[in-house]
Amino acid sequence: MKNLLDVRGLSKRFGGLTAVSDISFSMKRGEIFGIIGPNGAGKTTLFNVIAGQHKASAGGVTFDERDISGYSSDAIARLGIGRTFQAVTVFKSETVAENLRRANVLRRRHNPLAVRSAAASEDRFRAVASFIGLGDHLDGVAGDLAYGLQKLLGVGMAMLIEPKLLLMDEPAAGLNPSEKREAGTLIRRLRDELGISILLIEHDMPLVMDVCDRILVMSQGAKVALDTPSEIKRDSRVIDAYLGDDYDFA
Fold it and tell me: What are the angstrom distances between the C-alpha of 87 and each of 13, 154, 178, 242?
C-alpha cells in the first residue's frame, strides 16, 4: 500500500534562520504519527509547510500520491488535509451549532462536488457534535464553554471538512489530566472509527507514548530520531536532546 504522506528533505528558512532542516519521513494510511521536541525545534513550522501556510525553501511533500509542494493551504485542504491548532480557534460569540455550520460551508468550498441538502448538512454536523461529546451543547455560546470543550469544538470543525489526514497541534495543551485522557481516546476514535490518519505535535509524553504508532523527534530544526514509542523512550539521543535522564513517562 502506498504511503499517505511523504515528506522529502524538507527545509524552511526565514532569512538567516533555518527553522526546519532536511526533514524526511513517511506516514502510512491509518497511522497516528507524533512529532515531539523542545520549544523552538521547528515542529509547528513543519506543520505550516505541510499544510501550505509556508512555502518550503527546499524539499517537497507528497500526499495521497500527489506532489503538493507549493500548493496553497486552500488547495491542500481540498485534497483532504485538515488541521487543528494549539490555541482555541472557534468563533466565541457564536453558538456551537453556528460554528459547525461555518465548517460545513467551508467543506462545500473545499469540495464543490460535496453538495448536501440543508437537512443532510444539519444531520452531518449534529452527528459530529455527538461524536466529540458536544451534542448537548449545540445552543450554547462557544466562548462560554470550558476551555477543553472549546478545543473539542475545534476538532469537530476540522472533522466536517472530512479530512483523510488531520494535523493536530498540541491537542492536550491547557487540558487537565482527565481531559488529556479523553483527548487520547478521541484521537484513537478518529482513526479507528472514522479512518482519519493523525499527525500530531504534543508535549504531553504519556499521551504521545500511549496513542502514537511512531514518533519523530526534532531539535533545532533537525531530525534526532524516528521510531516506535518503546524505542524512543530509551534512545540516548532523545534523552540528551529533549527528555533528560530523569524524565517520568507516568
Answer: 24, 10, 19, 23
The pLDDT > 70 percentage for the chain reads: 89
- Of the pLDDT bands very low, low, confident and very high (cuts 50, 70, 90), residue 82 is very high
pLDDT tens digits for range 178-193: 999 999 999 999 999 9
CA–CA gap between residue 73 and residue 81 (Å, rounded): 9
In the chain, where are the structural domains located? Answer: 1-80+163-250, 88-162
Contact 187, 211 (CB under 8 A): yes
Q: Does domain 1-80+163-250 have CATH number 3.40.50.300?
A: yes
Statement: residue 106 has pLDDT above 70: no
Among 167, 226, 190, which Cα is nearest to 45's? 167
35 φ, ψ (degrees, to nearest 5): -125, 120
